[in-house]
Amino acid sequence: MKKQEKIKILMVGPDRGVHGGISAVVNNYYDAGLDQKIGLCYIGTMVEGSKLRKLIKAVEAFALFCVKVPGYQIVHVNMASDSSYYRKSFFIRTAKLFGKKIVIHQHGGDFESFYYKEQDDRGRRRIDRVLSMGDAFLVLAPVWKEFFGHIVSKNKITVLPDAIGIPESVSKEYGQHKILFLGRLCKEKGIGELLQIMPEIKKKYPETMLYLGGIWEDESLRVEAWKYKEYVSWLGWITGEEKRKYLEMCDVFVLPSYFEGQSVSLLEAMAFSCAVVASETGGIPQMIVRDYTGILVKPKDSDSLKNGLERALADAELCRRLGKQARRKVSEEFSIEKNMEKLLQIYREVLKLS
């Protein structure tokens, strides 16, 4: 292939305006200029809203995909589990029918439960066949390489962590007791346990404020949070300069998820030198080295979460050290520039160009 010719990639995933981790990853690639390095066409397959709106979007996306796919060398499929898997399986099968190279990028943190608890033997065999159609299979953390290695050939699997752009400079004042959460506001993110412990945290550290950035997916949790409105502030879904403001302002970041593939918001908190308190689950231990780049707690365990937060709130110097080391780690291992170069190399290997 001539040097001036760009690899042509047809990428599918949720609409870039959807509130979620995959959309954040895709937008980070665009911000870093991936579309300048390759011939990239992105098709959003899912939007937020009613079931009808989602169905219409999926049908329109699939029709566009069928028109576009002949002109591209690789189909890159961003996938999670549940409905995301079912939706993307149509795109994978179609790409295979067109004889295209396929890169499957698995983002979901709960695929193991989906695979073993929600599928019978026949369903698992069907998933095995679909996922094995990929020429390359990307996972976010080593723990997922081990899991998916029982489904697809291990020599197809590459660990490609999520990545972000690293802010050049960060101003941080520790000891303020300002706690930030960014993400989906639901049971699976540990919001119930977080709200449960807040009265005790507030009693012990009266100046504590908790800021929740995200969209409520559970009405009962929203009602519960309203009870503590004097010290629990809902920000809505924040982006851009507003998000940067809270990442700089808050000295502690909390992520008490039940499961997690990997978390872009966690990487952002590390890049802004926050002291992180996060669940020891999924890909999080790849980012948070216990008591070096953050504090790890047990998922679904309110006592463990309370103890972890109290450690951070009690010791500003500990927070400073954790924040500094977290920023160093994310700069060295999770920058979008390094991630993008690795992705481009994967594309070249799939096409046998290197």
Overview of the molecule:
By secondary structure, the chain is α/β, with parallel strands linked by helices. It is built from 15 helices and twelve strands. It has helices at 21-31, 34-37, 51-68, 83-97, 111-117, 121-131, 142-148, 191-204, 219-226, 240-249, 264-271, 284-287, 302-314, 316-333, 336-350; strands spanning 8-13, 39-44, 74-79, 101-106, 136-139, 157-159, 178-182, 209-213, 232-236, 252-255, 275-279, 295-297. The strands form two sheets. It has a six-stranded parallel beta sheet with strand order 2-1-3-4-5-6, with helices on both faces. It has a six-stranded parallel beta sheet with strand order 9-8-7-10-11-12, sandwiched between helices. Strand 3, helix 4 and strand 4 (101-106) form a beta-alpha-beta unit. The mean pLDDT is 94.
Describe this structure in a few short sentences:
This protein has about 350 residues and is α/β, with parallel strands linked by helices. The protein has helices at about 20-30, 35, 50-70, 85-95, 110-115, 120-130, 140-150, 190-205, 220-225, 240-250, 265-270, 285, 300-315, 315-335, 335-350, and strands spanning about 10-15, 40-45, 75-80, 100-105, 135-140, 155-160, 180, 210-215, 230-235, 250-255, 275-280, 295.
Short key terms for the protein model shown above:
354 residues; six-stranded parallel sheet; 15 helices; 16% strand; 12 strands; alpha/beta
